[in-house]
Amino acid sequence: MRNLLLTLSYCGKNLHGWQIQDNAVTVQEVFQEALFQIIHERPDIKGCSRTDSGVHANMYCVSMKIEHPITNDHLMLAMNRYLPDDVAVTSVIDVPDDFHARYSCRGKEYVYKVWNSRVRNPFLQELALHYRYDMDIEALNHEAQAFVGSHDFTSFCTLDKREKGDFTRTVKYFRVERDGDLVTFTVAADGFLYNMVRIMVGTLLAIGQGRKPYGSLAGIIETESRKAAGPTAPACGLYLNKVFYDFDINE
């Protein structure tokens, strides 16, 4: 029995997130079907997190235990033969028996992409948010530093029917940067709540538009109220960019 860690990248435009759903095509579904074509088994697959419909991943991690003798390199190539064009396996490595893609994770980095121009970019349709308003990148980057550190991020979480738990998370860094008309919001933390990054971005955009004042972000965090924050930014601009473990996957 081998415990394997597979890294994936995928475009979420036509996918309904990671987790299997009824009447919707998901990443987990196409991954499991491709794997079955190769090893004729359905092992228990552990994903590093959930992603919503329309969200993309530059790096998504899956762990699983199999007995099949296929080499890691051949498994990667075979998976990419059977997977749809919008999903790819980028690496396969052996990991210790107790490794778990989700529970061994030490943190994640997300990127949110905004095409900041009066004219849309047809090559970024459903791959970035088209945003026509002026953006003061320096001011927004300064405002975003209020997120850094350990806080209760209830204000930046979409609440569902589940009982509220500990909503404290530690944000390691948050950067707002421009490259031509492309603006990227990059945030890393030890964990994220449901829709947390999209609400963070939506709140910063609301501040940039003057719908909320500059300097208000720390107070919004302190309220621990979703109503105090801004709207949830659309899913199209969000990418799971990196997953952190106790070792470098690329080594």
The rough form would be described as globular
Major pleated sheet: 10 strands, mixed
Q: Calculate the mean pLDDT score and round it.
A: 94
The CATH class of the largest domain is identified as Alpha Beta
Give the N-terminus to C-terminus distance in angstroms. Answer: 23 Å
Q: Counting H and I runs of at least 4 residues, what is the number of helices?
A: 5
Structural class: alpha+beta
Integer-rounded radius of gyration: 19 Å
Task: Tell me about this structure.
- With 251 residues, this protein is of the alpha+beta class.
- The protein has two domains: 2-104, Pseudouridine synthase I, catalytic domain, N-terminal subdomain (Alpha-Beta Plaits), CATH 3.30.70; 107-242, Pseudouridine synthase I, catalytic domain, C-terminal subdomain (Alpha-Beta Plaits, 2-Layer Sandwich).
- It is 21% helix and 29% strand.
- The protein is built from five helices and ten strands, in the order E-H-E-E-H-E-E-E-H-E-E-E-H-H-E.
- Strands 1, 2, 3, 4, 5, 6, 7, 8, 9 and 10 form a ten-stranded mixed β-sheet that branches.
- Helix 3 packs across helix 4 (196-208).
- It is globular, with a radius of gyration of 19 Å.
List the topology elements.
Layout: E1 2-10, H1 27-39, E2 46-47, E3 56-66, H2 72-82, E4 87-94, E5 107-116, E6 129-131, H3 137-144, E7 149-152, E8 168-179, E9 182-189, H4 196-208, H5 217-223, E10 238-244
Parallel strand pairs: 3-10, 5-6
Antiparallel strand pairs: 1-3, 1-4, 2-3, 5-9, 5-10, 7-8, 8-9
Helix pairs in contact: 1-2, 3-4
